[in-house]
Each structure stands twice: as C-alpha cells, then as structure tokens.
Amino acid sequence: MAFFRVPGDERPVKIYIFRQAENDSYDVATVIEGVGTGIYSVNYENVGGSQDKEVIVSWQISGDDHTLGVYSLDDVEGIELLWVDSYTRFRLSDLDNDLERELVVLSLQTGEEDASRADFYDYDGAALALKSTAPLSTGINEIKSVRSGNLAGGSPALFVTSSFRDVPDQVVDILSVREGTLTNITLNTATLRSEETVRTYRRHRQRHRPGRGHGGAPARPGPQGQRRERRFLASGVAAVRQPRAAPPGPHHLPQRHRRLVFRRAQ
Questions:
Q1: Are 47 and 102 in contact (CB under 8 A)?
Q2: Secondary structure (3-state) at 204
Q3: pTM of the entire structure?
Q4: Backbone angles phi, psi at 42, to 5 degrees
Q5: Spatial distance between the Cα atoms of 179 and 175, rounded to a whole number of angstroms
Q6: Adjacent-strand bridge partners of 92
Q7: How many CB atoms lie within 10 A of CB 116?
C-alpha cells in the first residue's frame, strides 16, 4: 500500500494497493481515490463481516473539515462500504454484543442548528448501513475524548466527553445500544443535556503572596521601593541588603580560640 498526491487531478489523493506477483514483483491491484488536501488517518479494522480487514480513511478537506470512507479489500477490489461527507470523530466498538464491531460517527454542530449527534453504522451484508442516531448534549463546542467501556451491569457503552462554549464545565454523554437502537442514556429530555454527568470546573485564581509576583517570582519594586533603591545606589551601598549575621559564639571559633574564651570566662 502506498499513498500519493497528484496535483491538478479531480481526486488528487490516492491510495495504491499492490499485490505480490509470482516473480516477487508487485502489481497494482486497485486504487482508492479521495478528495481534499491529504490523508488525515488510515485504520485497518474488521467491520465488514469477512476475515479480511477493511481500510478506514479520513480524508482531510481543509483545516478541521474531514470526510470518512470505508473500503473493503475482498479480492483486492477496493469496494466502498461507506462514505460520510463530514464528521468530527469516529469509534469502532461492539455495542450490541454480536462479536462484531460497529462504527459510531460523531458529528459536532455548533451553529444555529446545535444538533450534535452520534450515528450508528452496522454491516448489513453489502455495506455499512445507518441503523440509528443518538443526540449529544446541546451547547457543546468541542468533543474532548471518546472511550469504550462497560456500564455497571456489564453492557458495552461509549463515553463521550465534551466541553461547553459558555462555561468551563465538561459533560459526559454515555451511548449504549438498547433494543438495537443507539441511545444516549444520560440525556435529560427536558434540558437536552446529560445533567447528571456534568463535571463542574472552577477557574482557579492564584493566591498572591505579599512581596512576590505571579508564580512565586519576586515582585517588581513599587515607587517607594524604587526611591529606596536609588538612595542605596547613590550612597554606594548595595541595593540588596543581606540579613544581619548573628555574632559568632564560641562554637564558631577555631579550637585554639575556644580555649582562650573558656579560660577568660573562668
């Protein structure tokens, strides 16, 4: 497998798949073509129900805009199983306990629609078909992470952590398959947010220590300190005064001087 970009072509980003010939050479078996400026990621996963892995390609259109394609390599033909025009993240996980992983595609909508969602795709024998859609919490502006796990009863689930655009809080939407349908089991239907799984974060204000700057650095002297510093410099005294040392006791003196001190004290 090799990746190329052909400027000026209608579909400039290409993935060449080679097959080994009998004489130890390689022939081009198929070419997968995509649009955009490059390839953001390539994953090899088994989502088509066959023994061979499929190729999941994230095509980068521009910036954070990506499209998603899933291709089967059965008989090295490069059959397209799925095409998603725009998405934010995706995750492969066995959510219905059929020992086959399904594809969940997350799409973030931050405009007037504000309808972020999770699309649940499963293989139907010919392609990856959209089975159901679950809404995510409204008001989110970034999907931080997507993790696979299990609920308390052992059912598989996806834990989607997102941040809000108006407050520093984060919310965790928990997605699980119920009776064959992907469901946001934490979503409050009244507020359209997963209220019970909101993590509240307070903005921490660093305590100010007198005479110290931010981060523990010494503060710059004020006008009074500046006048005192100029006075010290004018008189030839160092601007930074060292702490006055305590007068040395007998234990600070050399051994021969200690004897003299003790004799005089007697």
A1: yes
A2: coil
A3: 0.71
A4: -135, 130
A5: 13
A6: 103
A7: 22
